[in-house]
Task: inverse folding
């Protein structure tokens, strides 16, 4: 499926269609300090997919970055046409027994731009997550199923478990 001979531990693929490309946004490296986000793309949904030459997001190369274990991302276009990426991260505290993350995995957001080749990049540059990010905050129009918050949730929100 991917045109890459290197072995990779990837999971949680998210499929995105943009400007004639199918993009796979992949979590790689497990969920610890080796965590990262990698993007592969193809002109056909069935592949083959080519990996980007660098990770979109990771901190595996720098333990001093405040947000560590960055990975499991989702790219989203805002109603205003800007792109952001939500992802998981952790903020380790330095202890005598080594780094500890008492808050566990947290959700973070990054601003994203697209390079000339149509690949996503962090707006601030590089591949490390920023702690403070300026992102759009305009509310989206509610979907038709969320127009009355006093009504009970119906389909597709309330279903039987199989």
Result:
């Amino acid at each position: 499926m991917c045109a890459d001979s290197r072995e990779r531990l990837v999971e949680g693929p998210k499929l995105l269609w943009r400007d004639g490309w199918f993009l796979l946004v992949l979590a790689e490296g497990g969920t610890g300090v080796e965590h990262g986000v990698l993007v592969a793309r193809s002109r056909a949904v069935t592949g083959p997919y080519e990996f980007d030459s660098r990770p979109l997001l990771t901190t595996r190369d720098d333990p001093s970055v405040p947000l560590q274990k960055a990975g499991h991302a989702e790219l989203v276009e805002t109603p205003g046409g800007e792109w952001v990426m939500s992802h998981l991260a952790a903020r380790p505290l330095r202890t005598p027994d080594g780094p500890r993350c008492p808050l566990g995995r947290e959700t973070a957001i990054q601003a994203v731009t697209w390079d000339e080749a149509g690949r996503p990049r962090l707006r601030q540059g590089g591949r490390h997550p920023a702690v403070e990010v300026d992102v759009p905050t305009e509310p989206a129009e509610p979907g038709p199923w969320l127009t009355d918050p006093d009504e009970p949730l119906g389909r597709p929100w309330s279903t039987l478990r199989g």
About this structure: The first strand starts at residue 10 and ends at 18. Residues 33 and 69 are 5 Å apart (CA to CA). The two ends are 31 Å apart (CA to CA). DSSP finds no helices and eleven strands in the chain.
